[in-house]
Amino acid sequence: MIEFILMIITIVSAILALIQKDLLKAAILTGFSGGALAVLFQILLAPDVALTQAIVGAAIVPVFIALAVKKTQWGDA
């Protein structure tokens, strides 16, 4: 049952990240999606994949997206 909830969280947060107008909110939603997927991998007994997903999908990618958004905003000198 918890697997289905995590899958729904992953799908819904990914869709919300795609339709989000604010790019910083999209970065946060990307982190939610990656975190839920990492927990799902851990439940499915793939701890090596879960650790990689937690590091890359839930931490590094959202931070890089947020940094890219901050660096490319117009008018901020």
Q: How does the helix and strand content classify structurally?
A: mainly alpha
How much of the residues is beta strand, in percent?
Answer: under 5%
- What gross morphology would you assign? elongated
Radius of gyration over all CA atoms, rounded: 14 Å
Q: Tally of extended strands?
A: 0
Query: Kindly state the mean pLDDT as a whole number?
Result: 93
Which regions have little confidence, pLDDT < 50, spanning 5+ residues? none
Largest sheet: none
Order of helices and strands: HHH
Q: How many independent structural domains?
A: 1
Number of helices: 3
Query: Alpha-carbon distance between the termini?
Result: 49 Å
- What level of helicity do the residues show? over 70%
Subcellular location: Cell membrane
Domain MrpA C-terminal/MbhD: 9-72
Organism: Methanobrevibacter millerae
Pfam family, one: MbhD
Quick description:
The chain has 77 residues and is an all-alpha fold. The chain contains three helices and no strands.
Explain this structure.
- With 77 residues, the protein is an all-alpha fold.
- The chain has one domain.
- The chain has three helices and no strands.
- The protein has helices at 2-19, 23-43, 47-72.
- Helix 1 packs antiparallel against helix 2 (23-43) and helix 2 packs antiparallel against helix 3 (47-72).
- It is elongated.
- Residues 9-72 form the MrpA C-terminal/MbhD domain.
- It holds the Pfam family MbhD.
- Keywords: Cell membrane, Membrane, Transmembrane, Transmembrane helix.
